[in-house]
Amino acid sequence: MQPIIVIGAGPAGMMAAITAVNLGSKVTILEKKDRVGRKLSITGKGRCNLTSSVDKENLTKGFPGNGRFLFSAFDQFSNLDLIDFFEQRGLKTKVERGNRVFPVCDNAEEVVTVLYESLKRSGVSILTETPVRAIVIDSGKIVGVECKQGRLAAQAVIIATGGMSYPGTGSTGDGYKWASYAGHTIIEPRPGLVPLLVQEEWVRELQGLSLKNTKATSYDAQGKKINQDCGELLFTHFGLSGPIILSMSHDIGGYLSRHDKPVTIELDLKPALSQEKLDERLQRDLEKYARKVFKNSLDDLLPQKLIPVIIGLSGIDPGKVCHQINRSERLGLVQLLKHFKMTINGTRPITEAIITAGGVNVKEIDPRTMQSKLVEGLFWAGEVIDIDGYTGGYNLQAAFSTGYLAGKCAAHSAR
Ligand SMILES: Cc1cc2nc3c(=O)[nH]c(=O)nc-3n(C[C@H](O)[C@H](O)[C@H](O)COP(=O)(O)OP(=O)(O)OC[C@H]3O[C@@H](n4cnc5c(N)ncnc54)[C@H](O)[C@@H]3O)c2cc1C
Q: Which residue among 31, 46, 301, 410 has its CA within the 20 to 30 Å range from the CA of 158?
């Protein structure tokens, strides 16, 4: 019996291999790097946000664009099934803020170990340091792959090579060229969840500052709202990053790639206070520090790093004594704190994106099986497909669910 060959030992490929072998198939997994699950081991800042605990309908809503393509995959292997898979293998999970599911041990390496042990125990043949060079198609059917061992014959091939972000982990977009060779169309890969570049120079002064409770709203060049989110963000030497920025970057990046015009992000630095309440608060602070100069009056209101930037943008003389600050200056300051604007003129490159948007066109893959509609015996799984979710565990769930479905259907087709 010829094996099912899985290309790529990320979460999608490993789940596909485990599923197929458990259904009685002979399975070989080929991995370019020296060990399995390199990207998986750095997920969730090393803690691995495995999935989301939301219900099934909301799971597909975590995918702007192609969520519907994932209905079958989530139906066959849901977030509950994934949690069960790991718990049965001794990896306990917990739910944190925002429905994020993590292993109790807070260690992504443990997730990799569970998958690796499952591969080994179930008898999958694992070949690391084995980059696949080409896939072999004969008369509309996949018949094998080319790698350093030469041509390996296969009953079916599952391509789970991931996207092209964080290429050091092995995901260098190899699957796309094979997709084109097989006749598939590729939706132009672009950064999915990615930090944003800010045009204003002063942003560098804020590097390292993390704001836990901020409301961010983005607007296009016509002033039309693109999206909004509340939560944590981070200033970096080039601009903005952190959870809400990564989530918002999907639509902002999409806009930037279609138009040659920048986007404006507006931060509400005090979302819990209305304009009136913030004005009252400022009046109290300015009274408290009536004899001090303006630049020394904002310590109670703002983080230290932000104060010089806000003072500079406020247009109020930093040396002005607080009791001399007039109403219009104070109201201007309220406006600045509620509408702190930055110009977004790009994203960091795809290599620094958390995920790759774009990939193999979902219209050419059967969502009930993950099999190519163009080449018999060829299956797709994970990020190589044109699916990309928000932060919160959606992307790993998609990788595991599509991997499961591809493994199951490849096993059935190979019988
Ligand atoms: C820093 C970071 C943090 C993240 N955190 C989270 C998180 O907490 N939660 C979440 O849901 N998502 C997270 N993601 C996204 C998630 O890691 C990916 O969506 C997921 O790993 C995709 O799985 P995959 O199996 O499709 O591809 P990958 O994990 O990219 O695996 C593809 C595998 O294929 C191998 N390969 C590629 N080409 C070849 C070839 N020619 N021959 C042989 N092997 C090949 C690669 O070496 C790699 O091992 C994070 C991503 C990054 C970069």
A: 46
- In Å, what is the CA distance from 121 to each residue of 17, 62, 115, 118, 236? 12, 33, 10, 5, 44
Ligand 1 centroid vs 148 CA: distance in angstroms? Answer: 23
Q: In terms of domains, do 331 and 270 share one?
A: yes
Distances (CA, A) of 159 to 29, 36, 70, 75, 245: 10, 15, 17, 21, 31
Which ligand 1 atom is the nearest neighbour of the CA of 44?
8
Asked if residue 301 and residue 394 are part of one domain, the reply reads no
Tokens of 394: 């959606």
H or E stretch covering 216: strand 210-219
Query: What is the pTM assigned to this prediction?
Result: 0.92
* 13 and 56, same domain (yes or no): yes
Q: Whose CA is nearest to atom 50 of ligand 1?
A: 43
Q: Is the pLDDT of residue 139 over 80?
A: yes
Q: Find the domain containing 208 and state its range.
A: 195-347
Q: Find the helix or strand (DSSP H, E) in which 60 lies.
A: helix 56-61
Mean pLDDT for all residues in the chain: 96
Write the pLDDT tens digit of every residue in 351-390. Answer: 999 999 999 999 999 999 999 999 999 999 999 999 999 9
- For residue 75, which of 372, 368, 366, 380 has the smallest C-alpha distance? 368
- Report the alpha-carbon angle 90-95-99, nearest 5: 135
- Dist. CA 407 → ligand 1 center (Å): 17
pLDDT of residue 56: 84
Assess whether 245 and 383 both reside in one domain: no
Number of domains in the chain: 2
Q: How far is CA 334 from CA 275, 284, 343, in A?
A: 7, 13, 20
Amino acid at 367: P
**Angle, CA 384 vertex, CA 379 and CA 390 arms, to 5°:** 125
